[in-house]
User: Which sequence fits this backbone?
């Protein structure tokens, strides 16, 4: 009948009905379905026929599974065969439970931590061999059967000397199925991850097995997993507890994968509920072990105040792109550990005439990055920062005047405040005592004199005779503005030497 069905090319729907009605489905039928699955035009109908047999014909379940796993892991050059099969497996066959995890799915937990979980697992987490001739229960097929084989195939991408914490204790029939896959044309190692990644979406606890496999891989496969994990994570809610557990239990050897995961979680949570601050604490824990500041970048706004201040120099020393991401996270945050004004102030404190916590170049880069984001916060922040810095005791930060000049040039609305409030304070602090500060002071005056001539003239009138004389020699055109200002002042309103220099 099967031969005649093929010869007459009868409708595929009729084949499904016929196969479900006959007592035993012959191997020839699966060979025909396999051929149909390899052709795009007949693949969907053939896969649905296999699904129907799995659900309604217990005697056909092992044959159906062999076909599906062969399609998912074969070396066929047409990748659509693999992905269409995986899609059917995930959407129509696999059931995530609820059920307790197996021991090998919890490599991150100690025996004490895992005991209450595994004790409730089906078969206590042990093998589930079936007797010869015994049918595969549908519940096992849709759960452990799919998970166990996907786990074994994922582990096959690891290095030859890989040592996993716990073996996969699946049915011997599954081991036979796996062995047969490798006897044929099995897909490349990089293609053996896709079914497992898809399973992780529906059952996130499986991510721990993925991380363990990552730690056992050669560098090229590690890179592949880092680049591929987004295919699962972008569909898993950031609030999923297993994700936080994964970061909390991270080890130095899994750090690169954890960094990528954190970046993905930040992206997927954007515009939604902010990630828990526990992610920041977990990243800090691992940073204290590895000293890799890249860990702190995606969670920069989730770190507690003390840790952020402690680790800020390390973040500032990263590449410009990394610092930009960290600061962007901070600026966007609804509940940052510091205010933006406090962050900018701390950046200035990195360099003083007596000490450089980080190179001046790194501080300049950091200040430029945060300044480039000024359209995302109230620029009055810079007025607060400048005033706070100028009121501090001791020498001004190395980059103080540079920031004042930057603000004067790019944030005109603060020019009046700077001329009326900040420059007079600098005069009272005898700014001319530092060549660098004095040079910056003069640049600010030059940039504001035309728009703030009254305030600038007031500042000039506060200068000592020697400095004022030098300024008027360099800028004789300022004399008229100063003269107009002095004329409006009472007799004792300005120092005698000012009037003397104007005669």
Assistant:
């Amino acid at each position: 009948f099967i031969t005649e069905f093929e010869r007459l090319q009868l409708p595929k729907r009729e084949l499904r009905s016929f196969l479900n009605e006959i007592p035993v489905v012959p191997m020839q039928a699966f060979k025909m379905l396999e051929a149909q699955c390899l052709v795009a035009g007949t693949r969907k109908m053939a896969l649905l026929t296999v699904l129907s047999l799995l659900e309604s014909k217990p005697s056909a379940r092992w044959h159906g599974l062999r076909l599906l796993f062969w399609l998912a892991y074969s070396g066929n050059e047409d990748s659509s065969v693999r992905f269409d099969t995986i899609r059917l497996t995930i959407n129509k066959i696999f059931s995530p439970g609820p059920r307790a995890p197996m021991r090998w799915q919890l490599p991150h937990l100690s025996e004490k931590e895992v005991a209450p979980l595994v004790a409730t697992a089906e078969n206590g987490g042990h093998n589930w061999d079936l007797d010869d001739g015994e049918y595969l229960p549908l519940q096992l097929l849709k759960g452990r059967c799919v998970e166990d084989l996907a786990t074994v195939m994922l582990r096959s991408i690891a290095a030859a000397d890989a040592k996993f914490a716990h073996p996969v204790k699946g049915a011997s029939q599954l081991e036979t199925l796996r062995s047969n896959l490798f006897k044929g044309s099995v897909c490349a190692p990089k293609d053996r991850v896709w079914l497992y990644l898809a399973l992780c979406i529906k059952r996130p606890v499986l991510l721990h097995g993925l991380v363990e496999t990552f730690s056992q891989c050669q560098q090229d496969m590690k890179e592949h997993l880092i680049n591929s994990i987004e295919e699962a994570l972008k569909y898993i809610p950031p609030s999923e507890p297993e994700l936080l557990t994964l970061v909390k239990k991270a080890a130095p050897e899994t750090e690169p994968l954890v960094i990528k995961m954190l970046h993905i979680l930040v992206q997927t949570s954007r515009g939604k509920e902010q990630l828990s601050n526990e992610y920041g604490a977990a990243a800090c824990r691992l940073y204290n072990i590895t000293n890799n500041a890249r860990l702190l970048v995606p969670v920069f706004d989730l770190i507690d105040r003390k840790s952020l201040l402690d680790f800020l120099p390390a973040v500032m020393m990263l590449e410009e792109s990394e610092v930009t991401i960290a600061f962007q996270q901070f600026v966007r945050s609804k509940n940052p550990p510091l205010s933006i004004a406090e962050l900018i102030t701390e950046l200035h404190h990195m360099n003083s005439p007596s000490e450089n916590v980080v190179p001046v170049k790194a501080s300049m880069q950091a200040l430029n990055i945060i300044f480039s984001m000024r359209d995302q916060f109230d620029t009055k922040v810079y007025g607060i920062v400048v005033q706070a810095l100028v009121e501090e005791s001791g020498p001004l930060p190395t980059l103080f005047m540079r920031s004042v000049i930057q603000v004067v040039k790019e944030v005109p609305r603060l020019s009046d405040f700077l001329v009326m409030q900040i420059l007079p304070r600098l005069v009272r602090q005898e700014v001319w005592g530092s060549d660098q500060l004095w040079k910056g002071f003069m640049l600010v005056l030059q940039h504001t004199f035309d728009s703030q001539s009254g305030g600038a003239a007031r500042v000039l009138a506060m200068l000592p005779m020697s400095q004022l004389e030098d300024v008027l020699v360099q800028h004789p055109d300022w004399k008229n503005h100063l003269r107009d200002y002095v004329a409006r002042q009472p007799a004792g309103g300005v120092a005698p030497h000012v009037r003397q220099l104007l005669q």
Observations:
- The chain has 28 helices and two strands.
